[in-house]
């Protein structure tokens, strides 16, 4: 029984590989955009601008109040109606995951910047640094260590949440798995394999996050 | 000769509370001003208004002929001329000492690296910390960090230096090494504004004592007059808090001074 | 763009029911997850060697895999082994599996934050394991964990939308069904958005306030 299972997996590898490529593409793109967006959000929120803060807060709360899957549906079914454009599932997923991810990374960055002693900002300003220099040379480098472990956790969540793309029709690794199951009825094997697929991608990230947190927290 | 720095009718509020009330103060080039006063009297705030870390609400602040309370003031430029050293030194912990010193000169003033480095090294030697150039701040004592913080500001070649209770966070045995650096700067004729609680130091280094209370300047006098014969009741009450001797006019006071 | 308000009104009863299902699934999941987490926390506190590692493994497996996969596994794969499960049951089981892991981590952090000295002084006055847990550890760990616990409760409530994938009639599933039946996409999505905002936004704001309150009362960390 086991050998036929492994055989099946082996034979399906190209298909699964294509699906995995979709899943990973969505994840990696979203992670990249979220990181850039998140740093931007975090920096912008630590500037003392009331209206900027308000706008960003609304953005944050919108993505917190509305679950990601709902956002996926809103974009996938709503965009055609609202703007007359129909975005393929893949790009809907990337867009939603990026926006949501950016808000999550952003809050991490904001927290990290906020936790730095206020004097660092003042000392930097006192030697004449301007905004970008202050953040680039003084604040962000110090925040980096505090930001990284939680950000890795956000990355893990982005990868896990990318699995929802199958529900808006993306032919990702789950969809491919389901197609195989339709043919072969090997649901335990395939879902088990998918389970392990995500586990072996996410676990290293979680573990790394923990290791780094322990190593870098000596306050 | 007009003053290098001039506050006129300067006011500042924190919300409802007025922290600076009608401040009129002139500082001439080369003067050493020590600002004394009880906690919360606004002396730190006054200093911080000079380099733009606090924003004033009304009045006038003139520096080298320019009105700093104008909307168009480039504070970056001002901060290169008016350096500040903080109570908690706030060196950049992720950089070595030398990098701390070179950040401003290289990135803000865009100076030549070799020239900036030479200056930094010379100043480090002056405060006796040449061998610490590659150390990280956390490897240094408080007194050492504070001396380096002073050097960091000096590397920008400012006209004026502000010192905000720079020895308050130090262990007592390290206070003198920092104050001696400041004394050295005073001797060289640099314009200094110092907020401190170190009375003996204030007496030794100041050209003028500015006593503040409740956001106002109560008394301004040379140290010999201020410490031996305070003109106002509040100044007397304040000085009493630092004296362990009965409040009698002391003619032998001069002997207790630190030699200049 | 004008909305068909009459239609929206007609669907309200169904949506109300859907909200009920969402809350039902959510609260049951919270409850069962909490039980699982308490069990795990007890194991962790008393540092039983073998069981401790089992808990660790469970937490890692549950936290590093998507809810959707776990759900599909329970709903589609288990029948192949002979166990037939309804969508609702699969949802509860899966969310307990996931929620239990998250809450275990929260409680573990809370317990870790209680100083070892407390355990020792409790033992030295003769408290049994149960009493130690009940009177010394859990109260202290509990207060510290409150914001995290609440945050995870909200998370579980929001994750109920995922179980729409196995036809549990919560808010997202209901929305999809009505769109498929009546093609009033715009109206249904608007209702869904409104429900989400009304349901989850207050919770999120409450959490922020809770975090702020507790920060002021806490010294250290």
Q: What is the name of the CATH class of the domain at 23-169 in chain A?
A: Mainly Alpha
CATH architecture title of the domain at 23-169 in chain A: Orthogonal Bundle
Distance between the termini of chain C: 51 Å
Strand content of chain A: under 5%
Strand content of chain C: under 5%
Strand tally of chain A is: 0
Taken in chain order, the helices and strands of chain A follow as HHHHHHHH
Taken from the alpha-carbon principal axes, the silhouette of chain C is: flat
Can you identify the CATH class of chain C? Mainly Alpha
Low-confidence stretches of chain A: none
Helix content of chain C: over 70%
Give an account of the 3D structure:
The complex is a heterotrimer of chains A (about 220), B (about 260) and C (about 220). Chain A is about 85% helix and about 0% strand. Chain A is built from eight helices and no strands. The model of chain A has no long low-confidence stretch (mean pLDDT about 90). With about 260 residues, chain B is an alpha/beta fold. In chain B, strand 4 (about 60-65) and strand 5 form a beta hairpin. The two termini of chain B are about 25 Å apart. Helices cover about 80% and strands about 0% of the residues of chain C. Chain C has one domain: Orthogonal Bundle (MetI-like fold), CATH 1.10.3720. Chain C starts with a helix and ends with a helix. In chain C, helix 1 (about 5-45) crosses helix 4, helix 1 (about 5-45) packs antiparallel against helix 7 (about 170-180) and helix 6 runs antiparallel to helix 8. Chains in contact: A-B, A-C. The interface of A and C includes residues 64, 67, 161 and 163 of A. Chain C: Belongs to the binding-protein-dependent transport system permease family. HisMQ subfamily. Chain C: One of its GO terms (molecular function) is transmembrane transporter activity.
